[in-house]
Amino acid sequence: MSNTPVTIIKGDGIGPDIVNAALRILDVLEPGLDYEEVKVGQAALDDGESDVVPQSAIESIERTGLVLKGPVTTPSGKGYRSVNVAMRKHFDLYANVRPTLSMPGTKSRYNDLDIITVRENKGGMYSGEGQTLSADGTRAEALSVITREQCERIIRFAFDMARARGRKKVTLAHKANIMKSTSGLFLAVGREISGEYDDIEHDEVIVDACAMKLVMYPEQFDVIVTTNLFGDIISDLCAGLIGGLGLAPGANIGEDCAMFEAVHGSAPDIAGKNIANPISVVLASALMLDHIGQPDNAARIRKAVRAAVADHDRTTPDLGGDGSTDSFTDAIIERLG
Questions:
Q1: Of 42, 138, 130, whose CA–CA distance to 81 is shortest?
Q2: Alpha carbon of 271 to those of 15, 18, 259: distances in Å?
Q3: Annotated catalytic, 39?
Q4: Which of 208, 296, 311, 322 is catalytic?
Q5: DSSP secondary structure string, 77-143?
Q6: 89 in catalytic set
Q7: Which of 151, 54, 11 lies closest to 94, judged by CA?
Q8: Among 78, 139, 148, 181, which is disulfide-ready with 134 (CB 3.0 to 4.6 Å)?
Q9: β-strand pairing of 114-120 with 223-226
């Protein structure tokens, strides 16, 4: 049987440090992967490319249909376009999946959470459509567009995923009381589709109330499905409940391509210092193994990570330890079993 090709994007800042850690762990498992490394973002520009998503990267991803990615810098305000948004649009990665699972041994608000946020990945305000600024700099505008097709795809994806994973409830988070067109369409489609899934409980919550309830009573949530901008915020909030973005992997799923990534920033201030926590991208690699039909290897990674953190074995400074990226990766590898 031939190996599975996967495009590797190490990213910017701490990206190479933590992606290399994930690759070390994968190599121990021998999952039969062939790596194709490409550069995007600032790393591509530094390498002489004229675009943050060069053609060589696009061609590799089109060949493999599978990506493991580190964090990529996106400047706030002015600067080059978002690599993540560009890749989601180009490869039609319409579903963003962010698991939030409590991990023993971390400083967090709660110790028993297991929530999945499913976010529509291409439409809405987050897509960046129609952005204008008046010549005198006093008026800014942006366009929010979401289609019935986008709503149907993401909501059905959430219910199908919930059913496949044995989940009990799907919550639609919206702002249809005020945004009666865009959120109103999302809510209306959700009500239609939920009727097709009698085995899964369905409820609805206004997004600001959702944020409050997540902070106060997060145990009531199982799977949350929502639109692009709301999902970006809610998924980060959920990560904060379990100890931060360093513990939260992400997946971007389309019909023909899937990208698995660390969801935190590139942290240029600690790049190259060998102290970055690799958990986010390591757990993203486990999501990738699930996706390609290797759940046993994925489970081995998760079990090893959780055990190393629970034992406080060579953990990185953000986890309260004095270990390095390399030494913490060693601790995980020793527990792979």
A1: 42
A2: 8, 10, 23
A3: no
A4: 208
A5: SSSSPPHHHHHHHHTT--EEEEEEE--TTS--S-SS-EEEEEEE-SSSGGG-TT-EE-TTSS-EE--
A6: no
A7: 151
A8: 139
A9: parallel
Q: Is 310 helix (H, G, I), strand (E, B) or coil?
A: helix
Residue 30: CB partners within 8 Å, gap ≥ 6? none
Q: One-letter amino acid identity for 253?
A: I
From the list 286, 245, 227, the residue with the least C-alpha distance to 96 is 227
Beta bridge partners of 66: 258
Would you say 121 and 93 are in contact if contact means Cβ atoms under 8 Å apart? yes
In which element (H, E) is residue 203 found?
strand 201-206
Active site includes 175? yes
Q: Are 113 and 100 in contact (CB under 8 A)?
A: yes
Contact (CB, 8 A) for 8 and 23? yes
Q: What are the chain's domains?
A: 1-100+243-337 (3.40.718.10)
C-beta neighbour count of 236 within 10 angstroms: 17
pLDDT > 80? residue 75? no
Please give the Cα distance from 201 to 198 (Å, whole number): 7
Residue 303: active-site member: no
The single residue of 12, 17, 232, 290 carrying the catalytic annotation is 232
Which of 236, 303, 326, 330 is the catalytic position? 236
Q: Is 290 a catalytic residue?
A: no
Catalytic residue among 10, 175, 313, 318: 175
| Torsion angles phi and psi, residue 224, rounded to 5 | -110, 130
Sign of CA dihedral 231, 150, 145, 173: negative
Reading the block at residue 283, the tokens are 């757990």
* The one-letter amino acid at 193: I
The bridge status of strand 4-9 relative to strand 140-141 is unpaired
pLDDT in tens, 29-56: 999 999 999 999 888 888 888 888 899 9
- pLDDT tens digits for range 130-179: 889 999 999 999 999 999 999 999 999 999 999 999 999 999 999 999 99
Q: Which of 126, 222, 290, 318 is catalytic?
A: 126
Query: Distance between CA 266 and CA 132 in Å, rounded?
Result: 28
Helices (H) and strands (E) in the chain, counts: 11, 12
